[in-house]
Amino acid sequence: MIKRSTRWVVTGLLCAVAGATQAFPDKPITLIVPFAAGSTTDVNARDFAQILGNVVKQPIVLENRTGAEGAIAGQALVNAPADGHMLLFTSSSLPVLDPLMKKAMPYDPVKVFAPVCTVARTSNVMNITAGSPLKTAAEVVAAAKAQPEKLTFAYSSATTRLAAELFQQTTGVKLRGVPYRSSVTALTEVASGQVDLMFIDHVSAQPFYETSKVRPLAAAGAQRIKALPNVPSATEAGVPGYNILPWFAVYASAKTPPAVLAQVRDAVGKAMASPGVASNLEKRGLEPMAICGDAFVKFQKDDIELWRGVLNKAGIEPQ
């Protein structure tokens, strides 16, 4: 009996030591962003990094790893040690839309990313070169029907491409897509008149609104957005099918031990509940949205199925 009791005591001590080694975090956290500095994802990530750092009492190092429409950043997370000290802050295009729109990916985001928490959601706006004679969404549709594929649209992610594809499917027009590595570069090309249109969130486009180089024509969905009260909603503009609302979230590696993943989710949840977070997001024109853990897993799955149906109906094949 004495030997058996001693064995259990030793085993318990070993378990306690092993548990202690999984403390999170015990060093700086790297937050990977798949899009360029200045993009909405980047700006949102920088705000979030500061808040998360206050919660975990560790430095948060933000790294922009652009390219391959976000896949390079995702691969960085896949290759990193799965200890919770590297996280991915991304828009929904990478974990939801890329698997549906890309035939060959180096990894499956659904399998290799562990959903931590959503952070916010944003809008999508139809934007045009300020000098264009086309003043409304209806005029764009008429011009595109008169001359199919003459009008061009820039895209830098699956979200910005899909928004344009939905617009085309809904209106029955044909536009010509032009890919870019970053939203800033794409918008710069729209501002200069090299490309006609871009379907992107108003936060990314705001600097171009301020210089009067890009003009918003319609905001996706049925309601106008607070940040652009004078811009009609897509429904008001006669394009009710143009309805896409991207969101932002934090992911860890799917190989992260459950106990550590729970600590990561707890830390992110506390960050989202911090005073001033909601008001700060709203000032940037974003809507707070904190969905964590299993609820987030289900939310993502439902979103994937929703867009799978949309893509199948539109006849858009993975490329």
TrEMBL record:
Stored Gene3D superfamilies: Bordetella uptake gene, domain 1, Periplasmic binding protein-like II
Alphabetically ordered keywords of this record = Signal
Asked if the keyword Signal belongs to this entry, the reply reads yes
The organism's place on the tree of life at top rank: Bacteria
UniProt-listed Pfam families? TctC
* Signal peptide span: 1-23
Question: What InterPro entries does its record include?
Answer: BUG, Bug_dom1
**UniProt KW Plastid keyword:** no
Family affiliation: Belongs to the UPF0065 (bug) family.
Which protein is depicted? Tripartite tricarboxylate transporter substrate binding protein
